[in-house]
């Protein structure tokens, strides 16, 4: 192998990390088109000048089996062999491929834009029951402990009388009088 070359095993490790990314059922032996595009993007194989997302999609379609929706590591290597000369113009195929490998080795899927945990101060402020107003205030006692069902629900009146009826409980008396 050439000087400064990268072992295929190292590339395969990165391949597996990207292959299972975002897919709980993935084994790491095959990679779908979305993750192939992601590895190309995260490892800067896509540079938007020489290699675009379209190029990556075309190469992916070219190397995969006709009916398949995934590529194996061998096909992945084929795809890189196709993309390498485009990415590193003026280099020999081998040199270009080594440089592409160099970009990939040691990389893991970057979770760019993944939701961060909210800052604790904001959560504390929003969950401080002593600052609640209106109907929500009724649901907590002074210590900030929830009152449970008593504080939350209008307990239904199942006496059989219409709400706010002042003469409730007087029916039996009226029947006796008659």
Automatic annotation (TrEMBL):
It comes from the Eukaryota. This is Uncharacterized protein.
